[in-house]
Amino acid sequence: MFDDLDTDRRPLVLVWEVTQACELACRHCRADARPARDPDELTTEEGKRLLREAADFGDGQLVVLSGGDPLAREDLLELVEYGTDLGNRMTVTPSGTRSLTPDRVRELADAGVRRMALSLDGATVGSHDAFRGEASFADTVAAAEAARDAGLPLQINTTVCAETVDELPAIRDRVRELGAVLWSVFFLVPVGRGRVLDPVSPERAEAVMEWLHGVDEAEQFGVKTTEAPFYRRVGIRNDRADAARRGGITAGRGFAFVSHVGEVYPSGFLPESAGNVRERSVVDVYRNADLFADLRDPGKLTGKCGACEFKHVCGGSRSRAYAHAGDPLASDPLCPYVPEGYDGPLPGDGGSLPDGSSGDGTEPSGRA
């Protein structure tokens, strides 16, 4: 009998990038999305086989249908219904476009979608649309309101970089107003179009983590970080007793990503393939591929992440380590913490933004 939450045997989150097609051309897009669908995308039948394999991980496997924009696939509702019938918990991350009408939102809910995630990278029309390079704020807010009306739980995803960090308090207010159940705060990894954006400095990131813990305590919605697992280290060091229990997911350890053409990556932000679902079961790849096994072994980490006493509950962003050093087991350059007694090499400074830490952790302000 196996532990149902044993990340050596199953991912807590399995993302399938059903397409890279999207009407938007956001400046930070990991997928470098484009308007047209790739003719080599997994077909409907191949997708259904993937969903059957996902169900083999165990009852209630969480499957996220992402993109691009999943709505670009005509078979999206069919895939949601099929996955739901298999017992998978199906969620979807559509783009905020005019195609995401209230009727489409209701159809997704009726098909069995358990949660919908929308991206909000600014609190106003001007800031959100400027960051995304497209007019999507109004469509995103309308879709969020439609989700509330349909009784569909809503998650808001926000990218943290030099351009957006000062907007976080105002975005928090929007998350509250929209009735979201979870705010997923993603710290930029320089892949895809995101290579041209400036990340925050490690010190600024630490201050944002402190602030986010305060938000989590004060708000009705939950807060989680993406590609910033040292959020847990910050919580533990500040005596937040539940910090070590939250998430615990990093690339390849509780998380797997299947690309639109079937490549299995530890994360969409760590594009090193461990196999292809057209040739090998996603269950086999996740459990047995050397890359995934190495990423689940904290003893394989190098640099200050390898020496860190928090490596079992944090482990650093493997995606960011790969983007910066070409080695998914290297240190995460965004984390400023240096373990006591460590005198080895340190990663780079993590970005060109000057240290803008607020110092008191109350608001991620722009003051030095």
Q: DSSP helix count?
A: 12
Order of helices and strands: EHEHEHEHHEHEHEHEEHHHH
Q: Give the mean pLDDT.
A: 89
Give the uncertain stretches in residue-range form: 349-368
Helix content: 25-40%
Neighbour order of strands in the largest sheet: 7-6-5-4-3-2-1-8-9
Quote the distance from N terminus to C terminus.
Answer: 54 Å
Q: Class in CATH? A: Alpha Beta
Level-2 CATH architecture:
Alpha-Beta Barrel
GO molecular function: 4 iron, 4 sulfur cluster binding; metal ion binding
Domain Radical SAM core: 8-218
Cofactor: [4Fe-4S] cluster
InterPro entries: Aldolase_TIM, Elp3/MiaA/NifB-like_rSAM, PqqE-like, Radical_SAM_PqqE_MftC-like, rSAM, rSAM_sf
Provide a compact summary of the structure.
Residues 8-218 form the Radical SAM core domain. The chain is α/β, with parallel strands linked by helices and 368 residues long.
Describe what this molecule looks like in 3D.
One of its GO terms (molecular function) is metal ion binding. InterPro entries: Aldolase_TIM (IPR013785), Elp3/MiaA/NifB-like_rSAM (IPR006638), PqqE-like (IPR017200), Radical_SAM_PqqE_MftC-like (IPR050377), rSAM (IPR007197), rSAM_sf (IPR058240). The protein is of the alpha/beta class and about 375 residues long. The protein has one domain (about 15-325): Alpha-Beta Barrel (TIM Barrel), CATH 3.20.20.70. About 30% of the residues lie in helices and about 10% in strands. It contains twelve helices and nine strands. The protein has helices spanning about 45-55, 75-85, 100-110, 125-130, 135-150, 170-175, 200-220, 230-235, 280-290, 290-295, 305, 320-325, and strands spanning about 15, 60-65, 90, 115-120, 155-160, 180-185, 220-225, 255-260, 265. It has a nine-stranded mixed sheet. A hairpin with a 5-residue loop joins strand 8 (about 255-260) and strand 9 (about 265). Helix 3 (about 100-110) crosses helix 5 (about 135-150) and helix 7 (about 200-220) crosses helix 8 (about 230-235). The longest helix has 17 residues, at about 200-220. It starts with 12 loop residues before the first strand and ends in a 43-residue tail after the last helix. Mean pLDDT is about 90; it is low at about 350-368.
